[in-house]
Sequence to fold (234 residues):
Amino acid sequence: MSNSEAIERARDQLKECRTSHQKCLRNCALPALPTLVLNVGLSGDLQIKLHRSGPQQHDDYIALSYCWGGPQKCQTTTNTVDEHYKRIMLRDLSLSIQDAVEVTRQLGFQYLWIDALCIIQNSEEVNTQINLMKTIYKNATLVLAASSALNAEEGFLRKVPAAKHFKLPYPLSDGNFAFVDVSLMGASFEDPFKHHAKRPYLPSGVREPLDNRGWTLQECLFTRRLLSWGTQMK
Fold:
């Protein structure tokens, strides 16, 4: 699956979720924006900028879950915050953040929250903002997980080897699900995922770099919607 196909599919699924799922329809109010977010502008823009939200400002936003993998090449600090309100050049950002900006634009969102840029790293309020991360990920309209990137410099909108092993669900006559195990060597049918399963559970044979980070666990647990960009999306 190409990047454009994956984004189109994600766009369709997000629309279906927000217009068809009863639980989502009951919680359709726009979330309060975090104190600082990134205004990603329009597709093709070479820069983004930091935006300070008003106390009553509500809007959709995406939050990024990713592996830092070391010091970040671009962060918001007390020395850079004023400049970031004016502009942040995309070329100065790590590839994972550049990719997150592109996905945010393609999905039609204006605001993106990324910890390295939306928390003033050396400010007195840094601990307060870190403590709010649970709420930030919980309220995000969508959390984008850069699951396949070992560090921020790798990016995730890139070509990866096609999966050599994967599982496909199929319905049984009694309403449960089983799966077919497909590989380059052929296919085999196995027992249902679990007893009386009512919907397919897709175990993955690929462990992504993001899965090894304990810090990102809360980001996945609290989110309402998660788009994981892993090695099996292609």
Remarks:
- The first helix runs from residue 3 to 20.
- Residues 165 and 183 are 4 Å apart (CA to CA).
